[in-house]
Amino acid sequence: MKFQINVYGAPWTGNSARSAQQFIQHSLDSGHDIARVFFFFDGVYHGLNTQSPASDEFDLLSQWQALSDRGVELLLCIAASANRGLLDDAEAKRYDKSAITVARGFSLTGLGQWASGFHDADRLITFK
């Protein structure tokens, strides 16, 4: 089975992001495919490279990056990201900003990639 995972909530609001990560890990370990993980609304904050969780808190960013290292595509909605200050090199130049704030393993993309899940994934699962 091929899944598209949508993450809409910020990293610090509840346990849904951790649940999404566990679902992805178990799916991959069971032989399923992950078409992509699409971060939208406040979910784009998962790709913020300046996160610094306390030593006693779970490091969501490093876990997303570990999934990226396994070949999972991590996509941030470009409009939602720009609105919230998450910029890659190209967008920083476009908006004349000096900081690149998108973490390693994440890419900015449009809603076309989100909509692709309706035809190239067997199931779309959303975590809020």
From TrEMBL:
List GO BP terms, alphabetically.
tRNA wobble position uridine thiolation
Instruction: Tell me one GO molecular function of this protein.
Output: sulfur carrier activity
Task: Provide the Gene Ontology terms for cellular component.
Answer: sulfurtransferase complex
Quick one: where is this thing mainly located?
Answer: cytoplasm
Q: Which InterPro entries does the UniProt record give?
A: DsrEFH-like, Sulphur_relay_DsrE/F-like, Sulphur_relay_TusD/DsrE
UniProt KW keywords = Cytoplasm, Transferase
Q: Which Pfam families match?
A: DsrE
Where located?
A: Cytoplasm
Q: Provide the family line.
A: Belongs to the DsrE/TusD family.
This protein is called what?
A: Uncharacterized protein
**Whose protein is this, by species?**
Reinekea blandensis MED297
